[in-house]
Amino acid sequence: MKRTAKAHWKGTFKEGKGELTTQSTTLNNTQYAFKTRFADGGFGTNPEELIAAAHAGCFTMAVGYGLSEAGFTPGDLDTEAILEFDLTGVPTITHIHLDLKGAKIDGVDEAKFKEFAEGAKANCIVSRALSVPITLSVQYV
Fold first, then answer.
1. Which of 79, 86, 90, 94 is nearest to 131 (CA)?
2. Is residue 83 within 8 Å of residue 122, measured between CB atoms?
3. Residue 132: which of 82, 71, 70, 66 has the closest Cα?
4. CA-to-CA distance for 14 and 27, rounded, in angstroms?
5. What is the mean pLDDT of residues 34-38?
6. What are the domain boundaries of the chain?
7. How do residues 102-116 score in pLDDT, each as one tens digit?
8. What is the CATH number of domain 47-140?
């Protein structure tokens, strides 16, 4: 299986701009630029935001998968992925924190829910592709 995305860039690093398009066209000539990546402002997205979105989606789906495979019906699962990167020296992604909020599920207590979340954090495809520390907080309401 393969997934593709395309990027186009024109201009200097700070004044240039680009577009991103994904195979599904969910992103279709979506703008990105210096301001959307390294400053507050501008319209568009940036690679780090897209990594955070991919990680949140993959992780949340993995929690649902684990619960489903164990015979439970997942309710609402919401994850915020908070990606941190350091701009000193060579810009580097340094950490991702996953903040999961899950609705109570019949037959699953808080400790068991956290086990499913930890398993998803360790085993989702995006987590395994990243070589940065990943932390997790879980709220089970």
1. 94
2. no
3. 82
4. 22
5. 89
6. 5-38, 47-140
7. 999 999 999 999 999
8. 3.30.300.20
